[in-house]
Write a structure and sequence with these properties.
By secondary structure, the chain is mainly α. The chain has one domain. Helix content is 52%, strand content 10%. The chain has three helices and four strands. A two-stranded antiparallel ribbon has the order 1-4. A two-stranded antiparallel sheet has the order 2-3. Helix 1 runs antiparallel to helix 3. The longest helix has 34 residues. The radius of gyration is 19 Å and the shape is elongated.
Length: 126
């Protein structure tokens, strides 16, 4: 039987969503802090590209993580809609849109994981 990497992918996506949610919460908490620059994560597709495995080692079958894997969920300055006179780049409206996107993506990932798990269990029982 082949290993199933879908569960690992979903877990990585949920971890990325948690990181993004923490940054959004940090942005909202600092919405009135003078000079604060809003932060966001790299898109998940870029995270996956950065964390791809490269073939390396003494044996061609050995694999090691790429150097970018440690920076997979690195924060970057967010492109804000506005900058206030105090230099703050947090837009509460934009942050609430991000929260909605995160919630939808997390719900989708959870439902996909549940459905795949149910399908897997049905296949094992037969």
């Amino acid at each position: 039987m082949e290993p199933v990497y879908l569960f690992n992918l979903i877990d990585r996506h949920k971890s990325w969503l948690s990181t993004r949610h923490s940054l959004v919460a940090q942005n909202v908490a600092n919405a009135n802090t003078p000079g604060y620059k809003a932060m966001d994560t790299l898109p998940f597709a870029r995270v996956m590209e950065r964390s791809a495995l490269d073939m390396a080692g003494a044996d061609p079958m050995h694999m090691r993580p790429s150097p970018g894997e440690a920076m997979a969920a690195a924060a970057k300055p967010a492109e804000g809609w506005e900058t206030t006179f105090s230099g703050n780049t947090v837009s509460p409206e934009q942050e609430m849109i991000k929260v909605s996107e995160i919630r939808g993506a997390f719900t989708l990932a959870t439902n996909l994981q549940r459905s795949f798990h149910n399908m897997w269990m049905s296949a094992v029982r037969t």
